[in-house]
């Protein structure tokens, strides 16, 4: 009788351990699935924002005009689009310079923020914005970085941080009536889009610092 009772207790504890283990495994699987779906949603949201507000131009020497009807067209097909079909009034062409060194560099901090605003109809530069930026995580520029970019330590030491420069950039946009949302577009509020020569400026330089 005692042996049977001990066997029942052992069986009961075994069932409890199996139940607890199964519950923990289920919760871990649900958490992993939720995190995966969240990261996927965040990535799609970033890609949607980038597609709406950024255009990457190939290195062709000419601006490829992007419209809803020719978004997937080749460069040769888009260069000669009629100006009346242009989706944006201005292309804000940016080309950030960042901290760097030979080999792997864990964090690229923006040290120069240049933007020229190209009129999509005349293809002429109507406005310019330029600021040097003081890095925070790695305030001392490497010799390689100075030789590569031509930016000196004195220039970044006397500059503002990126958060301040972004506010100044927003003030610049406001002073010229520039907007990035189509619903705000009007004759006095031209629509602009950020344009780069590749995904690095936004994806690898700006997004990580703003995140």
Automatic annotation (TrEMBL):
Q: Which organism is it from?
A: Noctiluca scintillans (Sea sparkle)
**Bilayer-crossing regions:** 16-38
Gene3D superfamilies in the record: Ribonuclease H-like superfamily/Ribonuclease H
Which GO molecular function terms does the record list?
Answer: 3'-5'-RNA exonuclease activity; nucleic acid binding
Please identify the protein, giving its name as recorded.
Exonuclease domain-containing protein
Q: Which residues form a coiled coil?
A: none
What keyword terms does UniProt attach to this protein?
Exonuclease, Hydrolase, Membrane, Nuclease, Transmembrane, Transmembrane helix
InterPro entries assigned to the protein according to its UniProt record, in alphabetical order: 3-5_Exoribonuclease (IPR051274), ERI-1_3'hExo-like (IPR047201), Ribonucl_H (IPR013520), RNaseH-like_sf (IPR012337), RNaseH_sf (IPR036397)
Where does the record place the Exonuclease domain? 93-179
